[in-house]
Amino acid sequence: MITQQQTMVTDEQIMNGYWFNIKEELELMGFKGLLLEKLLQIITDYNTMEEFWNFIILNEDKQMTKVLLVHKFYIYMQSKYSFSDAGEFKRVYCSVKERNDRLNVIAKLFFSKSDEYYKVIDWIDTGKISFEEIYKLAVDYRRIFTAKESISLIESMDLK
Fold it and tell me: Digits of tens for pLDDT over the chain (160 positions)?
């Protein structure tokens, strides 16, 4: 009989390579190549893996391809874990003072990590772009482009 203690993932398991168990699980589910890489960017812990399983179960009647399933899961996770509106983004951004904390806020907005976000911090802090503008652009671009591509596109615009 399996106890609840045995089913819980501990920090020690994560530190001892639990990440690779997630990768192996996804590979056993038939994900490979770019789809696997995309999922590994999103699924970083056991709870997110469970969320992915639940997402599959809830959408099994729609008979989606793996590509569409990963795409819809990515969009679902973006909407769930990013900011609900520009006002919430501004409140959180203004509440943190450290540059690294602000980088994490920008990463949450774009739903990815990148050192390119230091540029966004500079643009916001110098008033080159408003919170509303960067929020709208980030939400529009994050579904289509990588972080670096998004920043390049925003940079190419005429900022104040």
Answer: 334 444 455 554 554 555 458 889 999 999 999 999 889 888 877 888 889 999 999 998 988 999 999 999 988 888 787 888 999 999 999 999 999 889 989 988 888 778 889 999 999 999 999 999 999 999 888 878 888 899 999 989 876 6
Q: What is the DSSP letter of 2?
A: -
DSSP structure class, residue 68: H
Dist CA 16 CA 73 (whole Å): 27
Question: 5 to each of 10, 99, 103, 119, how far by Cα in Å?
Answer: 10, 39, 36, 45
Tell me how many degrees the CA angle 135-140-144 measures, rounded to the nearest 5: 135
Q: Nearest CA to 139 among 95, 106, 115, 116? A: 106
Residue 66 CA: distances (Å) to CA of 22, 32, 35, 77, 111: 17, 10, 8, 16, 21
Measured between alpha carbons, how far is 90 from 106 in angstroms, rounded to an integer?
A: 10
